[in-house]
Design goal:
The protein is an alpha+beta fold and 187 residues long. It has one helix and four strands; from the N terminus they run H-E-E-E-E. The longest helix is centred in the middle third of the chain and has 134 residues.
Length: 187
C-alpha cells in the first residue's frame, strides 16, 4: 500500500506540478493582458484628453473668429455711416452754398433793378430842373424868336411836339421821342 500510495502521490504530485505550471503561465498571461489593457486604457484616456483640448482650442478659435468678424463688420458699418454722414453734410453745405448764391444773385438783381428804377425816377425829376435852369436865363439872353422858350439840345422835355429855341445855336428844337424812348429836345 505504501507503494500505491507513493505512486499516487507521485502521480498526483506530478499532476499538481503541471497544473501549477499551467496556472503560472495563465496567471502570467492574465497579468500581461491586464497590463496591456491598463496601457490601452491610459492611451485612451490620454487621447480623450488630447481630443478635449483640441475641441476647446477649436471652439476658442471659432469664437475668436466670430468676434473678429463682428468687430470688422461693426467697423465697416461705422465707416460707411461716417462716409454717408460726410457725404450728406457735403451735400447740405453745397445746397446751402447754392441757395446762398441764388439769394445773393436775386438780391443783386433786385438791387440793380431798384437802382435802375431810382435812376429812372431821378432823370424825369432832373429834366424839369434842367428845363427850368435853361428857361430861367432865357429872359436875360436876347431872344430871336419872341415867345419860344430857350432850351438845351438833348435835354428831357414835355409835352411831345413842343418847340423851343436852342441856347447854343438859336435854332428851333422840337420835343420828340429819342432812341432811348424818352422825350428830348431834338432838331
Amino acid at each position: 500500500m505504501a507503494f500505491i500510495l507513493g505512486v499516487c502521490i507521485t502521480s498526483c504530485g506530478g499532476s499538481d506540478h503541471d497544473e501549477s505550471h499551467d496556472s503560472k503561465n495563465l496567471s502570467a498571461k492574465y497579468s500581461q493582458s491586464e497590463e496591456e489593457v491598463r496601457n490601452l486604457k491610459e492611451e485612451l484616456d490620454q487621447t480623450k484628453d488630447d481630443l478635449k483640448d483640441a475641441k476647446e482650442k477649436a471652439d476658442k478659435w471659432d469664437k475668436e473668429q466670430e468676434e473678429k468678424k463682428a468687430a470688422e463688420k461693426k467697423a465697416a458699418d461705422k465707416k460707411a455711416a461716417e462716409e454717408k454722414a460726410a457725404a450728406d453734410k457735403a451735400a447740405e453745405e453745397k445746397a446751402a452754398a447754392d441757395k446762398a448764391a441764388q439769394e445773393k444773385a436775386a438780391a443783386d438783381k433786385a438791387a440793380q433793378e431798384k437802382e435802375a428804377q431810382q435812376r429812372a425816377a431821378q432823370q424825369p425829376q432832373q429834366a424839369p430842373r434842367q428845363e427850368v435852369r435853361r428857361e430861367a436865363p432865357a429872359p436875360a439872353a436876347p431872344e430871336q424868336n419872341a415867345g419860344l422858350p430857350t432850351v438845351h439840345g438833348g435835354a428831357f422835355c414835355s409835352p411831345a411836339g413842343a418847340t423851343g429855341q436852342s441856347d447854343r445855336s438859336g435854332r428851333i428844337l422840337t420835343c420828340r421821342t429819342a432812341r432811348d424812348g424818352r422825350l428830348r429836345w431834338m432838331k
